[in-house]
């Protein structure tokens, strides 16, 4: 059974090699590697944080809309936790 989800990913752009677009597409490939079918990727741009978090004052926000099985989100979270570029991640199910 496939469900629709939305994932908000905040990227640490301080130490990236290449462009932000390359990083966004590589993270999309990580989603697909775990069985997700991406419907839409929306880059929300660089935003300032309310306070410094882990020595960062801003991050690049990207919103991924995808379909996947219920356990897909857990697999993606585990995989992105190992990625140093991903600062924060938040997922929610869309009705």
Summarize the structure in words.
The structure is a single chain. The protein has a single domain, classed as Ribosomal protein S6/Translation elongation factor EF1B (Alpha-Beta Plaits), CATH 3.30.70.60. It has 95 residues and is an alpha+beta fold. Strands 2-3-1-4 form a four-stranded antiparallel β-sheet, covered by helices on one side. It has helices spanning 20-33, 72-81; strands spanning 3-11, 37-53, 56-68, 86-93. It is 25% helix and 49% strand. The model has no long low-confidence stretch (mean pLDDT 94). The protein contains two helices and four strands; from the N terminus they run E-H-E-E-H-E.
Structural class: alpha+beta
Rg over CA atoms, rounded to whole Å, is 13 Å
Strand order of the largest sheet: 2-3-1-4
Regions with pLDDT < 50 over 5+ consecutive residues?
none
Number of beta-strand segments: 4
- Indicate the CATH architecture: 2-Layer Sandwich
Q: What distinguishing features does this structure have?
A:
25% helix; Alpha-Beta Plaits; alpha+beta; 95 residues; four-stranded antiparallel β-sheet
Task: Describe the protein's topology.
Elements: E1 3-11, H1 20-33, E2 37-53, E3 56-68, H2 72-81, E4 86-93
Antiparallel strand pairs: 1-3, 1-4, 2-3
């Amino acid at each position: 059974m496939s469900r629709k989800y939305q994932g908000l990913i905040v990227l640490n752009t301080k130490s990236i090699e290449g462009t932000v677009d390359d990083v966004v597409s590589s993270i999309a490939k990580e989603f697909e590697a775990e069985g997700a079918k991406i419907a839409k990727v929306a880059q929300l741009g660089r935003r300032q944080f309310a306070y410094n978090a882990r020595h960062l004052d801003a991050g690049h926000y990207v919103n991924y809309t995808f379909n996947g099985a219920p356990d897909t989100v857990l697999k993606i979270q585990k995989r992105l936790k190992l990625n140093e570029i991903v600062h924060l991640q938040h997922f929610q199910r869309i009705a």
